[in-house]
Specification:
The complex is a heterotrimer of chains A (199), B (229) and C (391). Chain A has 199 residues and is mainly alpha-helical. Helix content of chain A is 77%, strand content 0%. Chain C is built from eight helices and 14 strands. The chains are: A mainly alpha (199), B mainly alpha (229), C alpha+beta (391). Chains A and B meet through helix 2, helix 3, helix 5, helix 8 and helix 10 of A and helix 2, helix 4 and helix 8 of B.
Chain lengths: 199, 229, 391
């Protein structure tokens, strides 16, 4: 029961409190770039979650059983290659077997290789949090969902911005960033909730 | 690129083609490592070192690497330089190593580096690529330090760890936190737009042409955007 | 095809070259990093053991140490630093403790902790200069009992480990384990399952009585001695004649109590706070009540609820007048609600009836405790009416 509780806490913290986009600034590029429309925001979010979980499922065993301490210096290079290969592989598989899904997610997949949230979560699971395999997977799902949530909320906000009048210099990206600041501020409210939820 | 003199290659990185404020590349480290000036300087130097080295090597290998696998090759080259820089920093400046944490290995996926490899080093000779790396790196450093100065001075009332009298008693913690980072970044971009109005190839939106992934993303308009550059 | 092969070869070549390059750099930097980290560890360890020099990590898997110990370092002069992980009120915290060659605590500090009040920061200083002999004289901090008790027991673990690493032996059992062992030796047939017998009136010479959950066997605690009796009343443990008399007397008293106990299970309207009821020969009733005070209904960030009720013993006459009232057990907040165990508080109920039992002075700052107590006392009068109707 305690193990289950700790998994729920890991998951909820990853989604709300430790949101990768809004508090750690990982995965900002797609957050700003692909959040213009709701459906593309959802598509990108789902694709990122999927790749994150896949990447963790592969990188965790490799780090633990092959690289270990001695070859630890190969971590970055191996992880990024794995992620790149996984993204390519996923695209090929989707294209061949589930063309419908490929049509909706396919365009976002290549963008994910250089999404630092994916590499970030793979590295953090091992170096920072010392999670075991199950915890790592749960954390990756949580981080992915947190990314999705941030994207969806933000796309809603952006459609409002487009209709408002803003000073010339702030049009476009600056206004978007300031809106991101507000969303990030809103997520601050989750701080402390999760740990006290299960008291 | 009408003016190809070496000095202008360096200078354009600092203002007119500033990677952070104009090209909008490398947003993640810009926001994440600018809580303190020391962290910003560390990240700036580390990224510049990787940028120069990878630009040189990629320019050197540009005729050897087959087109079909160039992106994985670039990634491997960049990742290895990142790891080398990481190990050197860990060994000689452990304070910076602790300060940057996971953002150090994440230089690998910093769009500036892959972006410059794909957009510049791939097409130019070694000397020019090195200068481009230096210019872009300096631009990145300047931008990071500017961001960090605003955030540290207002947020903690100090500069590079040295506290400023008077200001240290009136700090606005908001600027140290994530929302403050977004806000400062947004305002600075607007400011740079105001200053360079009309001169800089200002990005109205976050578009494909500055995206390093454009190379393996097969969206048609990305291809067009690439050709324009 | 030719292109494909070329691609594979060049990518592989680049991978191999970079790997060699990385291995080379790693060889150069690894010793420097190791040295750097050793220096950092050394600095951290000197904080708790100021005279320590040249710390070396000790392989703790070779010894049987308390489970809280996670790392140990020896130093040139014979001192040790222990790293411990323990649980306080909230979540685990990590403590470093330095012990010099004479077994004296030279410093203790918590290096990571999310504990609520930060007592663990200053508490380390109080444990300084203590040895295994006098560590128990340090009191826990009121309001942070759990945190500071955990802290103290961790330091005790470190002191014990110091003895073990120096080739000695130490009693690593916790207080609960010692009690369980004593009970088991006195009455093995109970299989370690005991419950505490509630003592209604003080029995001469007896400290505590444990009853076997399974049968009618008892363990009587007299001072340091644990004496077991089987279900037929035979004394199983060797003991003095005086103790035998005390126990015989105690057994008789227990039997008398058991006879006078009223079976509450059939009385449906009985208030739930009444745990047990006894009827004396003179017609007076003795009730054992569980009052829900702060320990049950309260609890906040700083003063956690214990989750345990206040146990009250009330003797009242059959016409509903309280003769004596006494708090037997309580686990309310120290220095606040805990005042319900003071005679000045509970003796206020003596002589009270249904009409005036609420007219007492409340415990200042402990509304929940006082109200819970009063509610339980109010149940006494209801209970006596029901009991009178039955018998």
């Amino acid at each position: 029961m305690d193990a289950f509780k700790s998994l729920v806490i890991i998951m909820l913290s990853a989604v709300f409190v430790d949101n990768y986009v809004l508090t750690r600034f990982l995965g900002i590029c797609p957050f700003l770039g692909v959040s213009k429309k709701l459906d593309s925001a959802v598509g990108m979010g789902v694709a990122v979650t999927f790749v994150m979980v896949m990447a963790t499922a592969v990188t965790w065993p490799i780090q633990t059983y092959i690289l270990g301490e001695k070859l630890g210096y190969l971590q970055t290079i191996v992880f990024i290659l794995i992620i790149a290969a996984l993204v390519q592989f996923t695209e090929i598989v989707l294209k061949k077997f589930i063309p419908a899904l490929h049509k909706s997610l396919g365009v976002y997949l290549p963008l994910i290789t250089t999404n630092c949230a994916v590499l970030g979560v793979a590295i953090n699971n091992i170096n920072e949090s010392n999670f075991n395999f199950l915890q790592s997977i749960i954390n990756s799902i949580g981080v992915g969902l947190g990314f999705l949530l941030a994207m969806v909320i933000f796309s809603g906000l952006r459609s409002k911005i487009q209709e408002s009048e803003i000073p010339e210099s702030f049009k476009g990206l600056p206004a978007t960033l300031i809106a991101a600041s507000f969303v990030s501020l809103a997520f601050f409210g989750f701080g402390g909730i999760i740990e006290n939820l299960f008291k | 690129m009408k003016n190809n003199s070496n000095l202008s290659i360096i200078l354009k990185g600092i203002l007119l083609e500033n990677p952070v404020f104009v090209l909008i590349l490398g947003t993640c480290p810009t926001l994440a490592t600018t809580k303190t000036v020391i962290g910003a300087v560390g990240m700036g130097i580390a990224a510049t070192a990787v940028l120069i080295c990878s630009n040189i090597v990629i320019s050197l290998l540009r005729k050897v690497i087959p087109d079909s696998v160039r992106i994985p090759c670039y990634i491997v080259v960049i990742a290895s330089f990142v790891t080398i820089v990481e190990m050197v920093i860990h060994a000689y400046v452990p304070i910076i190593y602790d300060l940057l944490g996971v953002y150090l290995p994440l230089i690998t996926v910093n769009c500036i580096i892959l972006g410059r490899a794909e957009m510049f080093a791939n097409k130019n000779n070694i000397a020019k690529s090195a200068l481009d790396g230096l210019g872009m790196g300096l631009g990145f450093c300047v931008a990071l330090i500017l961001m960090a100065t605003v955030r540290e001075v207002i947020g903690v009332g100090s500069f590079a760890g040295i506290s400023i009298p008077f200001l240290e008693n009136y700090t606005v913690k908001f600027f140290q936190e994530a929302p403050g980072g977004f806000l400062v970044y947004g305002v600075l971009i607007a400011l740079v737009f105001k200053i360079t109005h009309g001169k800089a190839p200002y990005k109205k939106e976050f578009s494909c042409d500055s995206c390093p992934s454009a190379a393996f993303c097969n969206k048609a308009h990305c291809q067009e955007a690439k050709e324009e550059i | 095809m030719k292109n494909n092969i070329k691609s594979v070869i060049s990518l592989t070549a680049i991978c191999i070259v970079t790997s060699i390059l990385l291995a080379f750099t790693n060889n150069l930097t690894a010793p420097i990093i190791a040295k750097q980290e050793a220096a950092a560890v050394n600095d951290a360890l000197t904080v708790v053991l100021p005279n320590g020099e040249d710390f070396q990590s000790v392989d703790i898997t070779k010894y049987t140490l308390p489970s809280t110990i996670t790392e140990a370092y020896s130093e040139k002069n014979g001192g040790y630093v222990f790293k411990m992980e323990t649980t306080g009120y909230d979540v685990g915290f990590v403590i470093l403790c330095g012990i010099d060659k004479d077994g004296v605590v030279k410093g203790a500090t918590s290096i990571s902790s999310k504990e609520t009040l930060g007592y663990e920061k200053s508490y380390g200083d109080e444990l300084k200069d203590k040895t295994l002999g006098d560590i128990d004289t340090v009191a826990t901090v009121a309001g942070a009992t759990k945190t500071t008790a955990a802290y103290k027991s961790a330091i005790k673990d470190a002191l014990n480990s110091f003895v073990i690493l120096n080739g000695g032996t130490a009693d690593l059992r916790s207080e609960e384990e010692i009690l369980a062992d004593n009970l088991n030796t006195a009455l093995p047939e109970a299989n370690g399952e005991f419950e505490i017998v509630l003592i209604l009136e003080e029995i001469n010479g007896i400290d505590t009585i444990y009853k076997s959950v399974k049968n009618n066997g008892f363990v009587f605690v007299i001072g340091e001695e644990f004496i077991g009796t089987d279900s037929d009343g035979n004394i199983l443990t060797e003991t003095s004649e005086t103790n035998k008399t005390i126990i015989e007397n105690a057994r008789q008293t227990l039997l008398k109590w058991a006879d006078s106990q009223i079976d509450l299970t059939k009385l449906t309207d009985m208030p739930t706070s009444v745990e047990a009821a006894y009827k004396a020969d003179n017609g007076n009733y003795t009730l054992i009540l569980h009052a829900a005070g702060y320990g049950i209904n309260g609890g906040d960030k700083y003063h956690p609820a214990s989750g345990e009720p206040i146990v009250i013993k009330v003797t009242a006459s059959k016409d509903g007048k309280i003769i004596t009232c006494k708090t037997l057990e309580q686990n309310e907040t120290a220095n606040i609600g805990s005042a319900c165990a003071d005679e000045s508080f509970y003796s206020q109920f003596n002589g009270k009836t249904e009409n005036d039992y609420t007219e007492i002075d409340a415990i200042s700052g402990a509304t929940l405790t006082t109200d819970g107590y009063k509610n339980a006392i109010g149940d006494v009068f209801t209970a006596i009416k029901i009991l009178k109707g039955v018998s």
